[in-house]
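Please decode residue identities from the backbone states below.
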């Protein structure tokens, strides 16, 4: 009997392959919930290149993602393989400048949002 779990393995591989990856409802161009939309907006305001995975097509994606991250809600942002958090944490980090630091983004990018 094999313990192989292709969905969990694909999620773990994607997290390792992409320096910045967002698991979300919908896509960056068409977020399917306000939390995903706000998280995308914070990343885009910092001109961040990121991979995105829509968890809606297959409920197993969300289930396996939560098993990996030990985080129950979506969206989930990973930077360099590490879970950063969901919408509230990402938004707070954006507002304090911590997100720009974590991403290695220029702080001026955060200032552009207010101009």
């Amino acid at each position: 009997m094999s313990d192989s779990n292709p969905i969990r393995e694909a999620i773990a591989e994607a997290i390792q392959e992409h320096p910045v990856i967002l698991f979300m409802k919908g896509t960056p161009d068409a977020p399917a919930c306000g939390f995903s939309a706000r998280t995308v907006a914070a990343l885009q305001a910092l001109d961040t290149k990121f991979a995105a995975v829509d968890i809606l097509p297959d409920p197993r994606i969300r289930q396996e993602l939560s098993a990996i991250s030990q985080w129950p809600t979506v969206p989930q942002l990973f930077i360099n393989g590490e879970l950063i958090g969901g919408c509230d944490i990402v938004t707070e980090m954006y507002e304090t400048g911590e997100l720009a630091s974590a991403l290695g983004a220029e702080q001026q990018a955060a200032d552009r949002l207010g101009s």
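Observation: The chain has a mean pLDDT of 91.
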